[in-house]
Queue: 4 jobs
Job 1
Amino acid sequence: MSRIWSTERAAIFAAASALLILGLLTGDWLIATLLVLGSYILWLYRRLAKLEKWIRRGTKISQVYDDSGFVDTIIRHLYQQKKQHVQRKKRTKSILRRLNRNISALPDATVLLGSDLEIQWSNAPARYLLNIRSPQDIGYRISNLIRGPEFLEYLTNIDSREFIDIDSPIDPAITVQIKIASIGGNQMLLIARNVSDEKLLQESLKNFVANASHELKTPLTVISGHLEMLESGENLSPAGKESINTVQRHTERMTDLIQSLLLLSQVESHQLRPDEGDRIAIEDLMLATMAAMEKFPDRERVEYHYANDCFLLGVKSELEGICINLVENALKYSTPETKISVAWDVNALGEYIFSVTNQGIGIEAQDLPRVTERYYRAPRITAEIAGTGLGLAIVQQASIKHAAILQIDSEPEAETRFSITFPSYRCSKEQRKTASVYRLSEY
């Protein structure tokens, strides 16, 4: 700052001295003033014009020059800012190059989309999975290159599904799983991966379970028939009857296991689209559940509360599997003579909530995260109560398939509540002239 004023003071002092000299020599102070002031303004204009030319050319560091006074200060400030900008630009370019190399090395196809779903960047795997080439396809809308109806529907409502599976535009034999996520700034990131092997393995597993179950059903049916014949014999000893009863129990358990495996392989097949499924009356689900509970002598403990004008969109057998498994578990693991509440409610978002509440042995805190794992059974109840360990795994997978959320609240030796919240787009209600009637089962 002192340098600015020292230079400007020198210029002003020189102008004043020139004015004094010219005024004394000419005796015309007006002309002397105009000459000195015009010269000073011309000198300032020349300096500012030079500064403007440097700024107009981009304040290039290679063209920086020296000046004096306030112009020199402006030049130095601009020079420092330009230098810092160049350094930041170099660092940013270096980071972008590293990021580009890292993303390009990803095995999954990655495509950066703009606000209008136009392609802004893509890596090499995108060419082999989605036939998107860079830089030839940069600027094109993604919908112009991938035209499948399911993909176009996904683009219109990305939040409706977590991901979709489509056939590759290059090879229909390749199944590509696509997920689109927002990354801010009206930009989205499309990630695609080849899931053909996973799909083939899942299909093979499903076929294996179906074939194995089919082959096991016939001998189990024959064994059950012969056991019934033997049991009706009059010459059986008490030990023989006990042996037959033991074999019958294991045969029934094997039959239940086969049915559970079949249902589990079905619910794990794929996730339903928001509009996929049949319109199923909740009343029908509850009637099927009541019929399945006929085998329990204490079924009258269960109280059913539901509206007879509510409907769900989904797969009926899988929704029945959810209801039956939860009510059956409540009967098995609750304290005898206590009531079991089975209810359908509606929350403020229009979501249907199916809940089963019982009083019983409950679930220990360390077991809660694992109860939905297949074949997992809490150690303290494994020997006491027969089961396959697949019931809650079926409930969890069927809930996920229907985009529903399973929640378990339990305290040991107290109340246990299983609740499943179905998204509003799967819920509907029949319009009636009379109010909905809640039924309480007489079972």
Note: Residues 432-443 have pLDDT under 50 and may be disordered.
Job 2
Amino acid sequence: MQLFLDGSEIDKIIEYNNIGILDGITTNPSIILKSGKNVFEVIAEITKIVKGSVSVEVSATDREEMYLQGKKLSAIAENVTVKLPITWEGLAACKRLSDEGTSVNMTLCFSSSQALLAAKAKASFVSPFIGRLDDSNQDGANLISEIKKIYINYGFNTKILAASIRTINHVKECASIGADVATIPVNVFDKLIKHPLTDSGLKQFTNDWNKTGQSIL
């Protein structure tokens, strides 16, 4: 499963990218607003750091404007993926952009029928929002399973990009089910490596090694 960072924090993007575990980035208007920066400057900077897909969302709701904005955003760099909402207008813009070779991420997916339409429109990614579904007492992980089954049944190439991830358990569920990608906010990404037994074990091993008085270097 590919791991994307959901955010625009340049220091964190550089940190994870330098380790070699970062496969891509997703952004949205809320994330860009928090950065306080110009969207084109933010995306240009990120695409120079990360080689993988960088999703950038349009602001329009009309298909023609979405298409034009998508063309403008995709011109920033070759690895830009245009994010469009799953609406009829969004699907029309998706099909047009995809046919022209532009990578598209259909976002705000909350049902398997929406995911089916995204695949038919040749989206590169579809983003089911599992956290928001859980918030409304629905099973976000189950939606991933439904989409996975549909895509396997018909050989669709659209990748399932699990979004709105709130917990480490969400990441585990997505990986177990077989989501292609999980886009993870910084506060959850930082916790993926942590476990109290790892910390206590490392402390013990370090103390024991120091007692030997030896050095590997």
Note: The two ends are 36 Å apart (CA to CA).
Job 3
Amino acid sequence: MMQMMKSKKDNIAEYILYLWQMEDYLRAFPENADATPELHELNEMMHREGIIEGGHLALANNALAELIDLHTTLLDEDAMYRAAIIRLQPSLNLLKAKTDRPTMSDIEACLVLLYQIMLLRLQKKEIIPETASVQQQATQVLTFLSRTYHDDQAAL
């Protein structure tokens, strides 16, 4: 069953993953584009932005850019955050090397990892322990980023 639109302010990482999921859903089931007002609106945006075949909505890309900016700031300002990224770096580099976009940001790589794991689970495929460990680390990074983003937005 479809969920209502995630809020960027509440959890920006979940918001991005949700938009990616809805894009894939609308590509797989275009006949359902008018099932809800939200799907209709997202479908219209995808048509306007020319991403029916592939790519991401500007909403998702802009949210990702905000998350990357916050990540860059935190690398300079938060030693614990920087240490978490350094621990995750080898796995992110390996993941990026296996994609068609090896220069993607570390944060996008974390999101891609979580999205791919979600797809594997939907297909009832096994997640090996090493992947589950990287997933846990990426989730911790994204959770910290999302909380920090939320707190920053609440302070505005």
Note: Residues 12-58 form one domain.
Job 4
Amino acid sequence: MTLNAHKILTIILFAFFLNGCSPKFFSGMEYAGTKKNISKQELFPVFKTEDPVRMFNMQIDYKETNLTGLLIVKQEGGKTQRAIFTTLFGMTVFDFEFNETDFKVNRIMEQMDKKAVLNLLKKDLKTLFLYNIPSHFDAKVYHGKKATIGYKIKTTDGKGYFLTNAAEKQLQKVEMPGCITLLNLNYQNYTNGFPEQIVMHHPKIRLRMQLDRIEQ
């Protein structure tokens, strides 16, 4: 191999290494190093254990299939949440109880009663409620414009990327990488400290779930 070829290979490998260290999720942000013993509250969790019952219009789009209905999220005591999704005709699609360590299926529609589907929904809900993150954690931190802070965290479901707005005290985006189960989560249009819309998207399998907050 010639000297020039060695130089080109070195540049390519170096660029690949840098890209691996700084995920596209943090594009345009400056790496600020590793921060230890971060409180989960610095991520500004959307759902809290003291929350009242919350209701959402929910839509699930999977390829050419669409399902709409009502999602009710309520605390079942302690740190356990219960999520019940019913169609507009009153059919229960799923009824789950879950916390940091447990996930109980009370009911699920027969067509969705598959291990892969349940594992996917379990991961999505744990991410939505930040149940896959301990109360304190270490993270690689990135700083962006307008008080934007990014965190690369080792969660119980693998690495995760989190984007917050420290000035507004808002969790804005989450990404959970995966070869097939890549999850993008967006919290949009905050009103009184809670997003009006939450979108969970698995682009590689064409699955999208949207929650629109219902005022109570």
Note: Helices lie at 3-21, 115-128.
